[in-house]
Design brief:
alpha+beta; single chain; 5-stranded mixed β-barrel; 448 residues; 9 helices; 37% strand
Length: 448
């Protein structure tokens, strides 16, 4: 631990001690500071260079079974004293919550694995400019591209600390490098837009910016002259850049807070088959250089790799301490935490293990179907499982991608969709949630 980190934790523990002196039975404090830089390039010229820095902290105090949170961006001694006073006063009058509380000290993380979540090198502005310039130039060089929304290269680093009266006190350093490009193809009312992007923890893992740009340009050109199709019930194939949305819906449905409230269509499905027996879905917070990796959660518990779906069967919920207490279970060390809200359960590096067939083989026997590359809207009801999303992509004919289509709606029910889902073998870790190409038969596609 650096001297700077040690000094920070000492100061946070001083605030907690003041809260205890003021009447709190327990308290914890979350501190977050961050720096970000973004360079935008458009039409061959630098457009913006933005740098932002900020500090925020949030104090949670507990008096009996009452808890309150107060936050501030002012770290002066006077402001922290006022923060303690406000938080304790609020905790005296809020309703009781029988499930709130800090972690027992014997559950706290001690020796932590290194998940390699921080790149020590901050890129110079000239490096970011070169990344954005190369990405946009490559996108505009694609034949058929007629305009550009620009390319952006960004970098950020954050330092987060959690200290609590149960003895927990740890600091996390995290970095991110990103490149994106978005362009338009065609002319007039027949223009189409598309994009590509990448985000990594370490700059050396970024793909070639020119490759990002080329993909953005090629994606836009491929979308030109989309056709309308008639409504039908057909197989739907999700491209990897949208297939992760299916796992995001699952994560919402198995969130311990939703289960405790009884507001999930999967609330009675523990230890039952939700997918086919070929499906395993993993949450791995300890994946080195993962976009959401972390060695401890928002309540100070040591994180660990876990299967939520194993051979098709649902084997655990996503739980923080509060939801675990409500359900009479143990936390899965899945708490996330901001400075102005209590902990809540969330996934980290969630992914579906790949299947055994290539994407080409996955669609080879589809006579007519939809290959989805873009989704719009939030038409998913996690209480009933009903699913309806706006979509765009390409029509499949006789096992081949035939032509672009747009202005579609795809609909089904997540329960049936999960059971029918078949994954390809092309899993790549691009997002915080990742899935390979997915095929789901029997979905309704509404067109003209």
């Amino acid at each position: 631990m650096s001297q700077s980190d040690a000094n920070l934790l000492e100061r946070l523990n001083d605030v907690i001690a003041k809260a205890r002196t003021a009447g709190a039975d327990a308290a914890d404090l979350v501190y977050a500071e961050g720096t970000s830089v973004a360079m935008t390039y458009r039409l061959g010229k630098p457009e913006n260079l933005d740098r932002a820095e900020g500090i925020d902290l949030g104090l949670r105090v507990l008096i009996g079974k009452r808890q309150a949170i107060a936050s501030s961006s002012d770290c002066s001694d006077a402001a922290l004293d006022e923060l303690v006073e406000r938080a304790v006063a609020m905790a005296r009058v809020v309703p009781e919550d029988e499930f709130c509380g800090l972690a027992d000290s014997d559950l706290l993380a001690n020796d932590l694995p290194d998940v390699d979540e921080c790149d020590p090198m901050e890129p110079d502005a000239s490096v970011l400019e070169a990344r954005a310039r190369d990405a946009e130039a490559a996108a505009r060089d694609v034949p058929g591209v007629t305009n550009s929304e620009g390319a952006e290269a960004g970098w950020s680093r954050s330092r987060t600390a959690i200290a609590a009266s149960n003895g927990f006190a740890k600091v996390r350093l995290r970095s991110s490098h990103a490149i994106s490009a978005a362009v338009l193809a065609g002319e007039g009312t027949d223009m189409e837009r598309d994009y590509d992007w990448a985000s990594v923890v370490h700059g050396e893992d970024l793909p070639d910016p020119a490759e990002i740009g080329r993909k953005a340009g090629e994606n836009a050109v491929k979308r030109l002259n989309p056709k309308k199709i008639s409504s039908a019930q057909v197989p739907v194939v999700y491209d990897p850049r949208v297939s992760q949305s299916i796992l995001a819906h699952l994560a919402g449905a198995v969130n311990g807070a939703s289960i405790a409230r009884g507001t999930s269509f999967l609330k009675d499905r523990m230890d039952t088959a939700v997918f086919s027996d070929a499906i395993t879905i993993v949450d791995d917070p300890l994946r080195p250089r993962g976009l959401r990796s972390k060695a401890f959660d928002g309540e100070g518990l040591a994180t660990y790799r876990k299967n939520f779906i194993e051979n098709g069967k649902l084997i655990t919920w996503i739980m923080d301490l509060r939801s675990a207490r409500q359900l009479g279970l143990k936390s899965t060390a899945s708490a996330t935490r901001g400075t102005s809200s209590p902990p809540s359960p969330a996934t980290t590096n969630l992914y579906m293990e790949p299947g055994s067939v290539s994407p080409a083989k996955l669609i080879a026997d589809i006579k007519s179907g939809l290959y989805v590359t873009g989704l719009m809207g939030q038409g998913t009801n996690l209480i009933t499982g009903d699913y309806s999303r706006g979509a765009e992509g390409f029509w499949i004919e006789n096992g081949e991608i035939a032509y672009p289509v747009s202005e579609l709606t795809i609909a089904g029910n997540l329960d049936a969709m999960f059971k029918a889902l078949v994954p390809a073998d092309d899993l790549i870790f691009q997002f915080g949630i990742n899935a390979p190409t997915l095929r789901i038969d029997g979905m309704t596609v509404a067109g003209k």
